Write the C-alpha coordinates for this entry.
Amino acid sequence: MIKTFHRVLPLFATALMLSASFAGVAAAADDALDETIQWAGIAEEIDEAPGYNDSKDSERKWAFSIGVTSGFSPDYEGSNDYSFGYSPNISASWRDTIFYKGRTLGANLIRQKNLKAGLMITKSSGRSEDCNDKLDGLGDVDGSIEAGGFVSFRKKPYRFKAEVKQDVGSGHEGALVYLGAGTNLPFENLPISIELGATWASSNYMESFFGIDAQQSLDSGLKQYNAGAGIKDIKLSMTTGYPITKRWRIGAAVEYHRLVGDAADSPIVVDKNQFLAGISLSYHMGSKFPTEDLQ
Protein backbone atom coordinates (compact mmCIF):
# COMPACT_ATOMS: atom_id res chain seq x y z
CA MET A 1 0.00 0.00 0.00
CA ILE A 2 2.84 2.40 0.84
CA LYS A 3 4.47 1.62 -2.49
CA THR A 4 1.22 2.35 -4.30
CA PHE A 5 0.80 5.62 -2.43
CA HIS A 6 4.31 6.70 -3.40
CA ARG A 7 3.54 5.85 -7.01
CA VAL A 8 0.33 7.84 -7.19
CA LEU A 9 1.45 10.82 -5.12
CA PRO A 10 3.46 12.31 -8.02
CA LEU A 11 0.32 12.15 -10.17
CA PHE A 12 -1.63 14.25 -7.69
CA ALA A 13 1.29 16.64 -7.35
CA THR A 14 1.51 16.94 -11.13
CA ALA A 15 -2.21 17.67 -11.38
CA LEU A 16 -2.03 20.38 -8.75
CA MET A 17 1.08 21.98 -10.23
CA LEU A 18 -0.35 21.96 -13.75
CA SER A 19 -3.54 23.59 -12.52
CA ALA A 20 -1.57 26.19 -10.58
CA SER A 21 0.74 26.99 -13.48
CA PHE A 22 -2.16 27.27 -15.91
CA ALA A 23 -3.94 29.60 -13.51
CA GLY A 24 -0.81 31.71 -13.25
CA VAL A 25 -0.70 32.15 -17.01
CA ALA A 26 -4.42 32.84 -17.19
CA ALA A 27 -4.17 35.52 -14.49
CA ALA A 28 -2.35 37.73 -16.99
CA ALA A 29 -5.81 38.84 -18.10
CA ASP A 30 -8.17 40.34 -15.51
CA ASP A 31 -10.98 37.83 -15.94
CA ALA A 32 -9.13 34.86 -17.46
CA LEU A 33 -8.52 33.17 -14.11
CA ASP A 34 -12.21 33.11 -13.23
CA GLU A 35 -13.02 31.71 -16.68
CA THR A 36 -10.43 28.98 -16.14
CA ILE A 37 -11.97 28.01 -12.81
CA GLN A 38 -15.46 28.06 -14.30
CA TRP A 39 -14.46 25.77 -17.15
CA ALA A 40 -12.64 23.47 -14.74
CA GLY A 41 -16.06 23.00 -13.13
CA ILE A 42 -17.58 22.13 -16.50
CA ALA A 43 -14.75 19.65 -17.01
CA GLU A 44 -15.85 17.89 -13.81
CA GLU A 45 -19.33 17.34 -15.23
CA ILE A 46 -17.99 16.00 -18.52
CA ASP A 47 -15.69 13.66 -16.58
CA GLU A 48 -18.80 11.92 -15.22
CA ALA A 49 -20.49 11.58 -18.61
CA PRO A 50 -21.28 8.04 -19.78
CA GLY A 51 -18.73 6.92 -22.33
CA TYR A 52 -16.25 9.50 -21.05
CA ASN A 53 -15.72 8.26 -17.52
CA ASP A 54 -14.17 4.83 -16.95
CA SER A 55 -16.40 2.71 -14.73
CA LYS A 56 -13.46 0.35 -14.12
CA ASP A 57 -11.45 3.06 -12.34
CA SER A 58 -13.00 1.93 -9.04
CA GLU A 59 -11.10 -1.34 -9.48
CA ARG A 60 -7.74 0.37 -10.07
CA LYS A 61 -5.17 1.34 -7.47
CA TRP A 62 -4.78 4.67 -9.26
CA ALA A 63 -6.06 6.47 -12.33
CA PHE A 64 -5.02 9.70 -14.01
CA SER A 65 -6.20 11.72 -17.02
CA ILE A 66 -5.16 15.00 -18.56
CA GLY A 67 -6.72 17.04 -21.35
CA VAL A 68 -8.45 20.30 -22.18
CA THR A 69 -12.05 21.56 -22.03
CA SER A 70 -13.36 24.55 -23.98
CA GLY A 71 -16.59 26.15 -25.12
CA PHE A 72 -18.92 29.14 -24.79
CA SER A 73 -20.63 30.53 -21.69
CA PRO A 74 -22.19 33.81 -20.46
CA ASP A 75 -19.78 36.54 -19.34
CA TYR A 76 -21.42 36.36 -15.89
CA GLU A 77 -24.58 34.94 -14.33
CA GLY A 78 -27.40 36.87 -15.96
CA SER A 79 -25.47 38.18 -18.96
CA ASN A 80 -26.71 38.03 -22.53
CA ASP A 81 -23.14 38.27 -23.84
CA TYR A 82 -21.18 35.06 -24.43
CA SER A 83 -17.48 34.40 -24.73
CA PHE A 84 -15.08 31.54 -25.38
CA GLY A 85 -13.29 29.91 -22.45
CA TYR A 86 -11.03 26.96 -21.77
CA SER A 87 -9.38 25.06 -18.96
CA PRO A 88 -7.17 22.03 -18.39
CA ASN A 89 -9.17 18.89 -17.68
CA ILE A 90 -7.18 17.02 -15.05
CA SER A 91 -8.40 14.21 -12.84
CA ALA A 92 -6.78 11.61 -10.62
CA SER A 93 -7.92 9.03 -8.10
CA TRP A 94 -6.34 6.62 -5.63
CA ARG A 95 -8.14 3.40 -4.70
CA ASP A 96 -11.46 5.11 -5.44
CA THR A 97 -11.00 6.95 -2.14
CA ILE A 98 -9.05 10.15 -2.77
CA PHE A 99 -9.83 12.04 -5.95
CA TYR A 100 -8.92 15.25 -7.72
CA LYS A 101 -10.87 16.51 -10.72
CA GLY A 102 -11.17 19.87 -12.39
CA ARG A 103 -11.13 22.16 -9.39
CA THR A 104 -12.09 19.77 -6.59
CA LEU A 105 -10.07 17.65 -4.16
CA GLY A 106 -12.14 15.17 -2.20
CA ALA A 107 -12.38 11.87 -0.38
CA ASN A 108 -15.04 9.15 -0.54
CA LEU A 109 -15.58 8.32 3.13
CA ILE A 110 -18.44 5.98 2.30
CA ARG A 111 -17.94 3.67 -0.70
CA GLN A 112 -20.69 1.20 -1.42
CA LYS A 113 -21.94 -0.30 -4.67
CA ASN A 114 -24.57 2.36 -5.27
CA LEU A 115 -23.75 4.95 -2.62
CA LYS A 116 -20.84 7.33 -2.11
CA ALA A 117 -20.47 10.14 0.39
CA GLY A 118 -17.58 12.23 1.55
CA LEU A 119 -15.85 15.59 1.93
CA MET A 120 -14.43 18.00 -0.63
CA ILE A 121 -12.74 21.35 -1.10
CA THR A 122 -13.35 23.33 -4.28
CA LYS A 123 -11.82 26.39 -5.89
CA SER A 124 -14.66 28.80 -6.58
CA SER A 125 -14.68 31.35 -9.37
CA GLY A 126 -15.16 35.04 -8.65
CA ARG A 127 -16.30 37.80 -10.95
CA SER A 128 -14.38 40.72 -12.43
CA GLU A 129 -16.21 43.94 -13.24
CA ASP A 130 -13.96 44.21 -16.30
CA CYS A 131 -15.48 41.08 -17.88
CA ASN A 132 -18.54 43.01 -19.06
CA ASP A 133 -19.54 46.68 -19.37
CA LYS A 134 -22.77 46.03 -17.48
CA LEU A 135 -20.73 45.34 -14.32
CA ASP A 136 -18.91 48.70 -14.34
CA GLY A 137 -18.90 50.20 -10.86
CA LEU A 138 -19.86 46.99 -9.06
CA GLY A 139 -16.31 45.96 -8.12
CA ASP A 140 -14.86 42.46 -8.16
CA VAL A 141 -15.96 39.34 -6.33
CA ASP A 142 -12.81 37.44 -5.39
CA GLY A 143 -12.36 33.77 -6.15
CA SER A 144 -12.07 31.63 -3.04
CA ILE A 145 -12.13 28.15 -1.52
CA GLU A 146 -15.33 26.30 -0.68
CA ALA A 147 -15.45 23.35 1.72
CA GLY A 148 -18.28 20.90 2.12
CA GLY A 149 -19.63 17.44 1.56
CA PHE A 150 -21.50 15.33 -0.98
CA VAL A 151 -23.75 12.29 -1.29
CA SER A 152 -24.40 10.41 -4.53
CA PHE A 153 -26.64 7.43 -5.15
CA ARG A 154 -26.79 5.45 -8.41
CA LYS A 155 -29.24 2.76 -9.34
CA LYS A 156 -29.22 2.16 -13.08
CA PRO A 157 -30.42 4.00 -15.01
CA TYR A 158 -31.00 6.70 -12.36
CA ARG A 159 -28.68 8.77 -10.21
CA PHE A 160 -29.14 11.35 -7.47
CA LYS A 161 -26.66 13.70 -5.85
CA ALA A 162 -26.50 16.42 -3.23
CA GLU A 163 -23.69 18.87 -2.49
CA VAL A 164 -23.29 21.41 0.31
CA LYS A 165 -20.47 23.97 0.15
CA GLN A 166 -19.46 26.94 2.30
CA ASP A 167 -16.96 29.63 1.33
CA VAL A 168 -14.10 29.44 3.82
CA GLY A 169 -12.02 32.17 2.20
CA SER A 170 -12.70 35.81 1.42
CA GLY A 171 -14.83 35.46 -1.72
CA HIS A 172 -18.62 35.45 -1.67
CA GLU A 173 -18.57 34.18 1.97
CA GLY A 174 -21.81 32.31 1.38
CA ALA A 175 -23.13 28.78 1.13
CA LEU A 176 -24.51 26.73 -1.78
CA VAL A 177 -26.70 23.62 -1.79
CA TYR A 178 -27.21 21.63 -4.98
CA LEU A 179 -29.72 18.82 -5.51
CA GLY A 180 -29.87 16.92 -8.78
CA ALA A 181 -31.37 13.82 -10.37
CA GLY A 182 -30.53 12.28 -13.71
CA THR A 183 -30.74 9.28 -15.97
CA ASN A 184 -29.16 7.86 -19.12
CA LEU A 185 -31.07 8.01 -22.37
CA PRO A 186 -31.49 4.66 -24.17
CA PHE A 187 -29.16 5.27 -27.11
CA GLU A 188 -26.85 2.37 -27.90
CA ASN A 189 -24.14 3.97 -30.02
CA LEU A 190 -23.87 7.29 -28.17
CA PRO A 191 -24.67 7.20 -24.43
CA ILE A 192 -26.25 10.46 -23.28
CA SER A 193 -26.97 11.49 -19.71
CA ILE A 194 -29.46 14.17 -18.68
CA GLU A 195 -29.76 15.82 -15.27
CA LEU A 196 -32.24 18.21 -13.69
CA GLY A 197 -31.10 20.13 -10.65
CA ALA A 198 -31.55 23.24 -8.53
CA THR A 199 -29.15 25.40 -6.54
CA TRP A 200 -30.01 27.16 -3.28
CA ALA A 201 -27.77 30.07 -2.27
CA SER A 202 -27.38 31.88 1.05
CA SER A 203 -27.90 35.62 1.45
CA ASN A 204 -24.13 36.28 1.45
CA TYR A 205 -23.72 34.57 -1.91
CA MET A 206 -26.76 36.32 -3.36
CA GLU A 207 -25.62 39.74 -2.17
CA SER A 208 -22.13 39.17 -3.58
CA PHE A 209 -23.27 38.23 -7.10
CA PHE A 210 -26.75 39.79 -7.46
CA GLY A 211 -27.09 42.52 -4.82
CA ILE A 212 -26.25 46.20 -5.24
CA ASP A 213 -25.36 48.24 -2.15
CA ALA A 214 -25.43 52.02 -1.79
CA GLN A 215 -21.84 52.56 -2.98
CA GLN A 216 -22.25 50.23 -5.94
CA SER A 217 -25.46 52.00 -6.88
CA LEU A 218 -23.66 55.34 -6.80
CA ASP A 219 -20.73 54.04 -8.87
CA SER A 220 -22.76 52.10 -11.44
CA GLY A 221 -25.96 54.12 -11.76
CA LEU A 222 -28.06 51.02 -11.00
CA LYS A 223 -30.69 51.10 -8.29
CA GLN A 224 -29.97 49.52 -4.92
CA TYR A 225 -31.07 45.92 -4.63
CA ASN A 226 -31.10 43.46 -1.74
CA ALA A 227 -30.89 39.82 -2.82
CA GLY A 228 -32.03 37.35 -0.19
CA ALA A 229 -31.36 33.65 0.29
CA GLY A 230 -33.28 31.19 -1.85
CA ILE A 231 -33.18 29.03 -4.97
CA LYS A 232 -31.13 30.96 -7.51
CA ASP A 233 -31.38 28.70 -10.57
CA ILE A 234 -32.77 25.52 -12.08
CA LYS A 235 -30.47 23.57 -14.37
CA LEU A 236 -31.03 21.09 -17.16
CA SER A 237 -27.86 19.50 -18.53
CA MET A 238 -26.95 16.90 -21.13
CA THR A 239 -23.55 15.19 -21.27
CA THR A 240 -22.04 12.51 -23.44
CA GLY A 241 -18.70 10.87 -24.08
CA TYR A 242 -17.01 8.56 -26.52
CA PRO A 243 -13.84 6.48 -26.03
CA ILE A 244 -11.81 7.08 -29.20
CA THR A 245 -9.31 4.48 -27.97
CA LYS A 246 -8.68 2.85 -24.61
CA ARG A 247 -6.70 5.93 -23.60
CA TRP A 248 -8.20 8.83 -25.58
CA ARG A 249 -11.72 10.11 -24.88
CA ILE A 250 -13.86 12.94 -26.19
CA GLY A 251 -16.88 14.35 -24.38
CA ALA A 252 -19.37 17.20 -24.55
CA ALA A 253 -21.85 19.05 -22.36
CA VAL A 254 -24.80 21.35 -23.05
CA GLU A 255 -26.50 23.15 -20.17
CA TYR A 256 -29.49 25.41 -19.67
CA HIS A 257 -29.83 27.47 -16.49
CA ARG A 258 -32.95 29.45 -15.60
CA LEU A 259 -32.35 32.13 -12.98
CA VAL A 260 -35.25 32.38 -10.53
CA GLY A 261 -36.24 34.30 -7.42
CA ASP A 262 -34.14 37.23 -6.24
CA ALA A 263 -31.37 36.27 -8.64
CA ALA A 264 -33.65 36.67 -11.66
CA ASP A 265 -34.94 40.05 -10.42
CA SER A 266 -31.49 41.60 -9.97
CA PRO A 267 -30.80 44.77 -12.02
CA ILE A 268 -27.63 43.18 -13.42
CA VAL A 269 -29.57 40.30 -14.96
CA VAL A 270 -30.19 40.97 -18.64
CA ASP A 271 -31.30 37.46 -19.56
CA LYS A 272 -32.73 34.92 -17.11
CA ASN A 273 -32.03 32.13 -19.59
CA GLN A 274 -28.41 31.03 -19.54
CA PHE A 275 -26.81 28.55 -21.95
CA LEU A 276 -23.47 26.79 -22.01
CA ALA A 277 -21.81 24.37 -24.43
CA GLY A 278 -18.44 22.69 -24.00
CA ILE A 279 -16.27 19.92 -25.40
CA SER A 280 -13.39 18.02 -23.81
CA LEU A 281 -10.56 15.80 -24.99
CA SER A 282 -8.35 13.85 -22.60
CA TYR A 283 -5.73 11.11 -22.32
CA HIS A 284 -6.40 8.46 -19.68
CA MET A 285 -4.06 6.06 -17.89
CA GLY A 286 -4.29 3.82 -14.84
CA SER A 287 -2.84 0.90 -12.95
CA LYS A 288 -3.57 -2.68 -13.90
CA PHE A 289 -6.50 -4.50 -12.39
CA PRO A 290 -6.93 -8.28 -12.25
CA THR A 291 -8.95 -9.05 -15.38
CA GLU A 292 -7.69 -6.55 -17.95
CA ASP A 293 -4.84 -4.21 -18.80
CA LEU A 294 -4.89 -0.96 -20.75
CA GLN A 295 -3.19 -1.34 -24.11
Q: What stands out?
A: The chain has one domain: 2-286. Residues 2-286 form a domain with the Outer membrane phospholipase (ompla); Chain C fold (CATH 2.40.230). The first helix runs from residue 2 to 26. The longest strand covers residues 230-243.
